[in-house]
Design goal:
199 residues; alpha+beta; Barwin-like endoglucanases; 24% strand; globular
Length: 199
């Protein structure tokens, strides 16, 4: 009888442990976690050189590393620091450190199996057009313009070679901050077309 009662309790309480979003909206409606700004993530499989020109000029073929490294396409207003460029945006070549909160948007992902932070470099853009749900923010971070889920920033992670999946990430909610790029990313960025345009 005790076993049946225990199993019944487990079945009853299972729905209550659903992770959902861990970040809470502040007084401006911007989601934060322990005081840190939050972002949503997705992943994509893109064989193009991207909006920062990280492939040989004159074509659309990417460098191999732009398919296999931890690179990211942020929402358009982050990509161009509030501007509207969809090529060589102001934040091309910047690096961001993303740390899972343990949460996710219900129905859009799962709790990550690892909460370790990782550094990603911006090599592409997630434009609002066609991506309004995730990347439709109307202003840059710090202006209280959020997506429908309450995030000022969205990061779409390149997953062509399974690099985002190998982290144990399936669209996790993260905290984010800009950081100095590691030297290997700096060397890779020097190969991109937008680097020669003062980026």
């Amino acid at each position: 009888m005790l076993l049946c009662i225990t199993l019944a309790m487990l079945c009853f309480t299972a729905p209550l442990v659903k992770a959902g979003q861990k970040c809470q909206a502040d007084s401006h409606g911007v989601r934060r976690y322990n005081g840190h700004p939050c972002a949503s993530t997705t992943h994509y499989d893109d064989g193009h050189r991207g909006a920062c020109g990280c492939g040989p000029s004159g074509g659309d073929t990417p460098f191999d590393w732009n398919l296999s490294e931890l690179v990211v396409a942020p929402n358009g207003k982050y990509f161009d620091n509030g501007g509207s460029k969809d090529w060589c945006g102001h934040n091309c070549g910047k690096c961001v450190e993303l740390t899972p909160t343990g949460g996710f948007i219900d129905g859009q992902g799962q709790a990550p199996t690892s909460h370790s932070p990782h550094i990603f470099m911006v090599t592409n853009d997630c434009p609002a057009n066609g991506n309004q749900y995730w990347c439709g923010q109307a202003g840059k971070p710090g202006t209280n313009h959020v997506s429908r889920n309450g995030y000022e920033v969205h990061f779409d992670l390149q997953n062509r070679q399974g690099q985002a999946s190998h982290l144990g990430w399936d669209n996790p909610e993260v905290t984010w901050k800009e950081v100095n790029c590691p030297s290997h990313f700096q060397n890779l960025w020097n190969q991109c077309e937008c680097h020669s345009q003062g980026k």
